[in-house]
Design brief:
The modification 4-aspartylphosphate is found at residue 54. By secondary structure, the protein is α/β, with parallel strands linked by helices. It has helices at 11-24, 36-45, 63-72, 87-95, 108-119, 127-134, 142-150, 154-164, 169-176, 180-194, 199-207, 214-223, and strands spanning 3-7, 29-33, 50-54, 77-82, 100-103.
């Protein structure tokens, strides 16, 4: 029985994906996650065959989350689900190991085709975007950035993500329920593995793989 993890921070969208996936694939075991932390816990606790991953959920930092998950679980097939339909973003995701890319504007048929295609071991991109994506040149920095992030453990990535959110070591220790010296030790190892000298440079590694979220940009414009 194949297993699917739906990773998205919007409950209604998760529920819609859940129902659609049940209709698309027989005998599919489905679980859900609403942040990258819960994704990392899920892939440590159980065998996952396929994931629908929202690029912009909490802790993901755009493509950094994808790179980290791929490093921890190289055999896990990941379909990116995003409101971002920019061809260069899709190309970067595919080059970093995504098995498919599903715009949030897609319909039920596209989702069903994506799930079936990826479970069959093939890559899936919407037909209307394939030629455009194929013409996009690779982003030269991504391979190096992904390799550096891949050197981090799941716990180290969590610490780095919280540093990027602006938390101090003491706040990170409280959030994770660990001692302050543990966080400091993680930070020393993080900077060593990323090849950086300070927190600002470590944060920059995440930011270089970050992406603007079109859905949030629309919400902010409506609120302005």
């Amino acid at each position: 029985m194949p297993t699917l993890l739906i990773a998205d921070d919007h409950p209604l969208f998760r529920a819609a994906l859940h129902r659609a996936a049940e209709e698309a694939v027989d005998d599919l075991q489905i679980s859900e996650a609403d942040s990258l932390d819960s994704v990392l816990e899920a892939i440590e606790a159980q065998q996952i065959d396929l994931m629908l991953l929202d690029l912009h959920m909490p802790g993901n930092h755009g493509l950094a989350g994808l790179a980290t998950i791929r490093a921890l679980q190289p055999g896990l097939a990941i379909i990116i689900v995003s409101a971002n339909e920019e061809p260069h973003v899709i190309r970067r995701a595919i080059d970093l190991g995504a098995a498919g890319y599903l715009p949030k504007s897609s319909g039920l048929v596209d989702l069903q085709q994506a799930l079936q295609t990826v479970l069959d071991g093939e890559r899936w991109i919407p037909a209307m975007l394939r030629e455009t994506v194929a013409r996009v040149a690779p982003f030269s920095k991504d391979a190096d950035l992904a390799a550096r992030l891949a050197s981090l453990s799941a716990h180290q990535y969590k610490v780095l993500s919280l540093v990027a959110e602006g938390l101090l070591n003491k706040q990170i220790a409280d959030r994770l329920g660990v001692q302050l010296r543990t966080v400091k030790a993680h930070m020393t190892r993080i900077m060593g593995r990323l090849g950086v000298r300070n927190r600002a440079q470590a944060i920059r590694v995440l930011h270089e793989m970050g992406l603007a979220d079109p859905s949030r940009q629309i919400e902010e414009a409506q609120d302005a």
